[in-house]
Amino acid sequence: MLSRRIWDSFFRVPLLGWLIGILIAVMLEHLLGDSLVDVLGLSKIPALFGFVIILKNPILMPGATLYVLLIYIIPVSAVARISSWPANKLAARLLDFPIWFSVVIHLGLFYAALHMWSEISAYRLLTLKLTLIAIMVTLSLNVVNGYMGEFSCSHPGFMALGAYAASVVTVVLFVNDRLFGPALLAPAFGPFIFPVALVTGGMVAALGALAIAIPSFRTRGDYLAIISLAFMFIIKSMIENLEVVGGPRGLSSQPDYANLPIVFFWTIACIWMTNNFVRSILGKALNAVRDDEMAANAMTVNTRRTKIIAFLFAAFWAGVAGGLFAHVLRYVNPATFGLQKLAEVLAMVYFGGLNSVYGSIVGAVSLSLLGEALRPLEIFKWIIIPLLLILVMIYRPTGLVAFKELNVRNLVKPKQ
Amino acid sequence: MPLLQVEKMSHEFGGLRAVNSYNLEIEAGQIRGLIGPNGAGKTTIFNLITGIYKPTEGDIILDGKKITGLQPHRIAAFGIGRTFQNLQLWRHMTVVEHVKLARYSRVGYGLIGAFFGTMKRQKQEADIEEMAHNLLKMVGIDHLSDQVVTNLPYGDQRRVEMARALSMEPKILLLDEPTAGMNPEELIQMMEIIRRVHKELGMAIFLIEHRLKVVMDLCQMIQTLNFGHVIAEGTPEEIQNNPKVIDAYLGRESLV
Ligand SMILES: Nc1ncnc2c1ncn2[C@@H]1O[C@H](COP(=O)(O)OP(=O)(O)OP(=O)(O)O)[C@@H](O)[C@H]1O
Ligand SMILES: [Mg+2]
To answer: Phi/psi at B35 (nearest 5 deg)?
Structure first.
């Protein structure tokens, strides 16, 4: 009875309260993390919630668990619970202003927490950036495979196009490079040109998508899966044979422009724009085409145009994500964009949930983190993750959080 | 000039001549019926008019404009709305989303609005939403507007079909057995809706029906189809007493 009431009280904590809790927990880690690690007999601050430590050395399990409990779980839930009342008041107050104001405040808090969390180690920072990029890729593929109900396999190809196109722009302009000669612009312009480079990457990917879309969406039928798969392999071998960009050895020395705020910004932009799109009438047309194409047609929906737009849109964001990816690692090679990448992205889409922005976020975050956390298990990782996928497919065939609409106003509103 | 005119339209499936030299003239605002036994070719005629199939021969003219062979979405946008005999709803979408989506060709905010959620879009979507609720009230299912259609009973799904087609603001509405599978009470309600829609919105209606009672009540003129041929055309009384019609239905089902 009592536990039930405590449990319920957490449902009355608004998002704002949770964000404050997380922020304070992360601050606590900065202040006390190192000393707590000494007390608990751990060698360093657990990078990803103790999973890696436990799997590497099970003896450290109590210490790592205690660490996660003391630094994250207890402070977050305590602060969230305690701040519930003022946080609800504040959230209600924020809604007196235009909605974007409240959203910016929430995002600001969230970013601050992520930023401080990632400062603890370079590994955390890298994992975080790659996870954000995975969200973009997953969400954009969900537009095609979930919202539109087609089966596309070309996303690694789009990422490759974006990665290489964006890299070529920044390397030609700002790097004294073996392949491309001296820099053409002063490095000071770099951060300002970087968005242009990313958009270029997106555009090139969209152009590639057009080559798939025109033949695939001409008639009804399942040509897309096979054509897009072929496309992925063609792009890969094309880059392998393109010596200008380093062939199979890859392309390196991208300038260091993809810092956390930039990656975060683009991820939010991708989520925001995708959510706008899929909730508009033009975006709902994707669902109509998927559920009954003939009816969609009879209700004035230009199905071919609808499909092509959505496909190019998805490719654009995969391209932008590819551009970021290249600049986070500051190196790309064509081998990255093959079947394994495809399997990874498809898994994230179908695990997280079709036709859902939440689903894509959940899928990308959980499988990215799981992939990292299970790294010590080496080969067994490739047994556990597929098993998990199969379980989800059996019990929830459309994924964990499928067909759930992301309504920003509901997200930031007070809960009491 | 008639609103919709079909001239000597024929269609073959493989060797089967499902529609044979079919003619039709519907004036603006008229309600017309099309009856005939199973497999007579009624739905095929709708599919031909709406562009789902392209006629083997013949012409279709809407408002003086030849629409033969155009793509279905263009024909629909020119003003031909329809419902489907075997409910063709979008199973993951809510009722109100169905009605809003049929405004697709009239959406004026374009991709910029869709991607960036501009003010123009918000305003237009709000207007469309309001219009959708008005239509849902007209067919009596506004209280179900946020339900996913698959949760709805059969009769209500038929109403969604109706509201969706109306939302296109068609000049002519093609209804393919709008009362199929309904119980007597639902049937009366649906007939009431059709009358009301016709009175308030004033478009022409072309109605396929199995139950003669319905067409006899609603329509001013009725065609009877058998094996792809029009075997009789006239007022309800003329049709009712036509021996060919009685013949075509004989042994299949009762007339009334
Ligand atoms: N897509 C198709 N391919 C081949 N034959 C078809 C097709 N559609 C319909 N037919 C055939 O054409 C004929 C007319 O079918 P249609 O569906 O138009 O009949 P209907 O009058 O609507 O009948 P019902 O009252 O059962 O709905 C039938 O013999 C049917 O089998
Ligand atoms: Mg039929």
So the answer is: -120, 170
